[in-house]
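Late entry, written up from scratch paper. The run itself happened at the end of the previous shift, but nothing got recorded in the book at the time, so transcribing now.
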Amino acid sequence: MGKSQWVQWCEVDEIREQMDRLLDVARQGLSVSVASGPGFVWMPLADVVETPQALVVRIELPGVTSGQVLVEVADGALLVRGERPADCEEGETAYHLLERAHGSFARRFPLPEDADGCGISAVLREGLLTITVPKRCPAVPVRRTLTLE
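Output as recorded:
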């Protein structure tokens, strides 16, 4: 194989690696745009689990403190938004690779009709936000005998 062909194969291999990284980013639900650009919104990974008693939402928020997150219920949905600050140093530091997203984030999860919006609890511990939305007890039919006058 000549030198020219070797260079071409190296370029093909580099393109394949770039495509692999692009697909990894897409699988994580992140935008393909520059992760630190102005107006960038990233979407943290989440799991939603329903038990007989509650809906449990777990969201990965490494590097985020409780003061940087807002959790609210509105219009039949759970809204989680906030911002993860950049930990890049300004100045003459040359960064060669920046893959960790930072900036504003927002997630919206529709709630089931039996969700008890008043009983929600949220805990942020070790980069994992766990939100528990209890379900209202189903209406129990009342059986009652009336005495006629």
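Residues 30-37 have pLDDT under 50 and may be disordered.
(Scratch paper discarded after transcription.)
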